[in-house]
Specification:
Layout (H helix, E strand, L loop, with lengths): L1 E3 L14 E3 L3 H11 L3 E2 L2 E2 L48 H9 L2
Antiparallel strand pairs: 1-2, 3-4
């Protein structure tokens, strides 16, 4: 039996799901039957067989730039006139000083 517990890249904490590989199909079916909808520490477990992901192209999926609420400028245009540049309008004094120094 092999266990893989994915973690978040940003925090390093578990993402809330896991993959378990069993040597035999009968063992996997028994685990699904026994543990699906089992309550553990006040939360119900969802246990099911993993589905294969669709094959990706070598270059990966098309990427679109993500938009953030900090990108919007109520007066039109991008912040500071630089397209795609993101920064918070409010923040710590340390962040503001650092931004001033980088100009």
């Amino acid at each position: 039996m092999d266990l893989y517990l994915p973690t978040s890249r940003e925090t390093g904490r578990p993402r809330g799901f896991a993959f378990i590989a069993y040597a035999e199909q009968a063992q996997a079916a028994d685990a699904i039957r026994r543990f699906d909808q089992l309550e553990l520490r006040g939360r119900k477990l969802n246990v099911r067989q993993a589905e294969d992901r669709p094959q990706r192209s070598p270059s990966g999926p098309p990427r679109t730039p993500s938009r953030s609420p900090f990108d919007a400028n109520p007066f039109g245009g991008d912040r500071r006139g630089v397209p795609g540049r993101r920064f918070k309008t409010k923040g710590s004094r340390r962040g503001l000083r650092g931004r001033k120094r980088s100009l």
